[in-house]
Description:
This protein is of the alpha+beta class.
Amino acid sequence: KEITVEYMQVIKDMYNGVKTRVRILGGNTNDFLIGLHQGSILTPFLFTIAMEELTREIQDEIPLYMLLTDDIVLIDETRDGVNTKLERWRDTLEAKGFRLSRSKTEYLHCNFSGSEGVANGVTMEGVVIPRVEMFKYLDSIIHENGKIDEDIN
């Protein structure tokens, strides 16, 4: 996943000194410098590359996580494993200036083994994370019972 110096320079040059202005009632604002364009086709790609690099040291050898731009899915067979991974990711990202959203973080328990017991208590910094019955990831619906009926409909 190495990116050559030439590619990095091209990307930097694309955004170097870019200015914009905002149309407001009665005219436009003065020009101001902007960084990476929100809505640019490159934005999610560049963010993903940055996240991959920033989290390289905590990524598992066999990746039991999915990362796409600002969405992260952590996978483990146990609640304790999920809690451990969540804290490692939170510690790593927050040490580098990012913040995991406490209001958007949720967890889904899929009991594929059929064992008894309810997986409760996924936490972030001691705060219980809300459990959901399903969630959408990359336009696919993942349901706690393992069925994909809602994704097909």
